[in-house]
Amino acid sequence: MKRRPLVIGNWKMNGDRGAAVRLAAAAADVAAALSGVVDVGISPPAVWLERAAAVAGSARVLAQTSSEHTGGAHTGELSCAMLSEAGATGTLVGHSERRQFNGEDDAVVASKLREARESGLEVVLCVGESLEARDAGATLDVVEGQLEGALAALDQLAGIVIAYEPVWAIGTGRTATPEQAQEVHAAVRSWLARRFGEAAAAATRILYGGSVKGSNAAALLSCADIDGALVGGASLDAAEFAAICRAAAA
User: Fold this and answer.
1) How far apart are the C-alpha atoms of 37 and 182, rounded to whole Å?
2) Fewer CB under 10 Å: which end of the chain, C or N?
3) Residue 217: pLDDT band with limits 50, 70, 90
4) How many CB atoms are located within 10 Å of the residue 20 CB?
5) Looking at the predicted structure, is the pLDDT value of residue 171 above 80?
6) Does residue 1 belong to any structural domain of this protein?
């Protein structure tokens, strides 16, 4: 099955208001140029969601995280309804930095995913192993465990994208080789097929993230089971991000 590539720029905690508007407008241009060929998305800091969404055109706008709670006494949290009203159409869930620095275990990730789906947001579920796990040969055990922890309560995959991000390749300049990335992506798709059926697995987009740049995007995105990219630092450079999007269209 041919899956349309999806490239999302995760800006993390970077940029001021002006940069957010400029990058969102640039993403809109790329999305328009590649309309029907590549889906383009951006994930700005929450304070810039509304301004970015106003100029993002057909580019998707995703929150970097969302609350597992619908509302109430949760100081500092942002509900899915709030994010949606600010212009988000989706949210990242389970990014390794949230798992590592904010204590989000599999139970929290599962709750956030469930709340986001029930609120009508598209979910990009992030999974990935540490360097220690890879060196110990436990990559697939870790990744499949994270998939099970997040998706165990679901009966179908509609509205979910998977992003494989090896923790050791995020922001380090190190990138999984195309062969390493493809091996994990194929294993993820096999797991999804066992859990949800072949058709659902074949229709689900699995993105690669981890030091993706214009110079390595083509090799990664040419792999059979890699359906796009979740881009970190390179997404803060409009020209570099556009190059990655164009590589996905090749």
Assistant:
1) 22
2) N
3) very high
4) 22
5) no
6) no
- Give whole-number Cα distances, 191 to 139, 146, 205, 232, in Å: 14, 11, 14, 26
Query: Is-catalytic flag, 95?
Result: yes
Q: Which of 95, 97, 122, 129 is catalytic?
A: 95
CA separation for the pair 141, 191 (Å, rounded): 11
Active-site annotation holds for 165: yes
pLDDT at residue 1 above 80? no
What percentage of the chain exceeds 90 in pLDDT? 94
- H-run or E-run covering 163: strand 160-164
Catalytic residue among 122, 165, 185, 240: 165
- Residue the block writes with tokens 């998707």: 60
Number of domains in the chain: 1
Question: For 86-106, how does the pLDDT look when each residue is reduced to its tens digit (9 = 90+)?
Answer: 999 999 999 999 999 999 999
Q: What is the mean pLDDT of residues 219-244?
A: 98
**Residues ≥6 apart with Cβ < 8 Å to 179:** none
- pLDDT, position 194: 97
Q: Which residues, listed in sequence order, are joined to residue 63 by a DSSP beta bridge?
A: 91
Which DSSP symbol is given to 170? S
CA 155 to chain centre: 21
The pair phi, psi for residue 76, each rounded to 5°, is 90, -10
pLDDT at position 175 over 90: no
Cα pseudo-dihedral 222, 224, 225, 227, rounded to 10 = 40
CATH of the domain at 83: 3.20.20.70
Mean pLDDT of 125-135: 94
- Asked if residue 13 is part of any domain, the answer here is yes
> Are the beta carbons of 191 and 152 closer than 8 angstroms?
no
